[in-house]
Amino acid sequence: MPQPIPLKDHEQDARLVRRRVLVGAVVALLLLLVLVFRMYYLQVIQYEYHATLSENNRVHIQPIPPPRGLIFDRKGRILADNRPSFSLTITRERTGDLDQVLGVLAEIFGLGEEERETFRKRVVQGRRPFEPVPVLFELTEAQIALVAVNQFRLPGVEVAAQLVRHYPYDDHFAHSVGYVGRINERELKTLDPVEYSGSHHIGKTGVEKFYETALHGRVGYEEVETNARGRVLRVLRHTDPRPGADLVLGLDLDLQAAAEKALAGRRGAVVALQPATGEVLAMVSQPSYNPNLFVTGISFKKYAELRDSIDRPLYNRVLRGLYPPGSTIKPMMAVSGLDAGVITRTSRVFDPGYYQLPGVEHKYRNWNRYGDGWVDLDAAIMRSNDTYFYDLAHKLGIDRMHDYMTRFGIGQHVSLDMGEEASGLMPSRDWKRRRYRQAWFPGEALILGIGQGYMQATPLQLAQACALMATRGKWIRPHLARTIDGHTPQDPDPLPDIRVQNPAFWDWARHGMEMVLHAPRGTAHKVGATAAYRIAGKSGTAQVVGIRQGERYERGKLAERHRDHALFIGFAPAENPQIAVAVMVENGESGSGVAAPVVKQVMDAWLLDDRGQLKAEYRLPESGSGMTAEKGMP
């Protein structure tokens, strides 16, 4: 039976079409709303962001490095300035193929593979985007012309003028002023990326490093419009940088030259302080080096010559040199013994030329093997009698000796602004137990009593100990800076003054120091006899190699670099101290014969006028002229 043919339901089809149209309209409306919302979001809500992105296609912020602060000596003579120099810079983001650009530079400048690799390392070092990196300094006119002729082959390469640090006195202040050098990757990680944007140098040593923050200044900026190739079309906004603060040091150029002349080319150190203020007047470490070599990058060959030199010109002997202080500590030992009550002004010790501990056969020899007979405090300092100070050290003991000597700055940092200073060593029972896992022996205390053994001090520490003798224990830390941007540096952690039971103790020890130079039997009387003023001082000899029991020191059998170091400390005028000086001459052998004349020449340069007379400002009234020799006499 045939099936009936179904009739088409037009009404149902119409409803289906309507539903589809409605769904399509809703979807289209939703899509339109999404598009409108997206346009609103991009053009209204994120307007500033996209406007900035658009501006960055043609507007850039360029840092303006601040001029570094100048460094002067106490009389206003420039020790470190900034000089204009033309440098070759590369902006990595604009070079395209860096290897190709470096190849062109190697071709036109005749660079070797080593120099080319050095350029690459400098360019790829992490810096701010679009910041030019200098790769070659102090361009000549011929080199600038080569860059100009080949500019079409050197995208991102420009010749820029900048200020470069310069030290006009070359090696004379290398160990005090220090130098600046290129910022390395390790330093880059710790520096403020904003303040050092555009800066390529930082203080590496000396006051250049210690006062880096003040000397650097504050960075400035320029907002510039550039074309597609990065060339500046116009400056939109300019903010001036703030120059670094100027630094005035206590150093005196003339005194520095006099100290270097007095050393006469010998290896050694000279440091002169002003006792009343702590200002460093002269600081010499010889041999020295030219810091200008390090500013724009020293060659491997020249650096190797300095580093490997047997004379160690890079070594700061004033701050880093550790030497047994020898007999220079005897005046401080005398004050310690007097204050501890183990000796008096009239205490005497018989010196047969050696000292023996009770019940011990070993003889601790005096430098004068024939002995000085009965010796009191004055004679002990004047003659630098070892036997007297062996006995004093034995009576004091290591514990009290450690306590007193650290008060004088032995074994600790004493400076205010010399970050490279070594602490030296003032041994103790605990130190030896930690270091050698051994107990302290009585004989070791005896050796310390004459400044030998484990004890080590820097020339700066000896100068400060001498200044403490001059000021009768008033602690003022030595410092290189006299003013920073016109302000006097302040000690954030002042040390307590050395207080003794009787102020006369200082005078008794100082009187012995005067006798060293002005008594007929004083160890440095030949130097004192020619002085136009009274000097209080003390010589010292530091052993480089040990001498066996019973043997004599014979210079002819020793290599020159194995001979004793010569030391001398002193202050003058003795009755009104204006300068304290410490001198160490490596392998100079005689403190009185070699180091003492150096001290006197430095003092003469500071204290005497053109006629060879004591300057008027350093003279006391006539009524006080005889105070030193008699002031503390019992």
Summarize the entry for a quick read.
The protein is 36% helix and 17% strand.
On the 0-100 scale, what is the average pLDDT? 88
Q: Counting H and I runs of at least 4 residues, what is the number of helices? A: 22
Counting structural domains, the number is 2
Number of strands: 20
Q: Give the CA-CA distance, first to last residue.
A: 156 Å
Main β sheet profile:
6 strands, mixed
Broad structural category: alpha+beta
CATH third-level topology of the largest domain: Beta-lactamase
CATH C-level of the largest domain: Alpha Beta
Q: Could you state the CATH homologous superfamily of the largest domain? A: DD-peptidase/beta-lactamase superfamily
The share of residues in extended strands comes to 15-25%
CATH architecture tag of the largest domain:
3-Layer(aba) Sandwich
Report the C-alpha radius of gyration, rounded: 37 Å
Low-confidence stretches: 623-634
Shape category: elongated
Measured as a percent range, the helix fraction is 25-40%
Description:
- The protein is an alpha+beta fold.
- It folds into two domains: 60-249, Penicillin-binding protein 2a (Domain 2) (Alpha-Beta Complex), CATH 3.90.1310; 253-307 and 315-631, 3-Layer(aba) Sandwich (Beta-lactamase).
- The protein has 22 helices and 20 strands.
- Strands 2, 3, 4, 5, 10 and 17 form a six-stranded mixed sheet that branches. A five-stranded antiparallel sheet has the order 12-11-20-19-18.
- Strand 19 and strand 20 form a beta hairpin.
- Helix 10 (253-263) runs antiparallel to helix 21 (591-607), helix 13 (330-340) packs across helix 15 and helix 14 crosses helix 19.
- The chain starts with 9 loop residues before the first helix and ends with a helix.
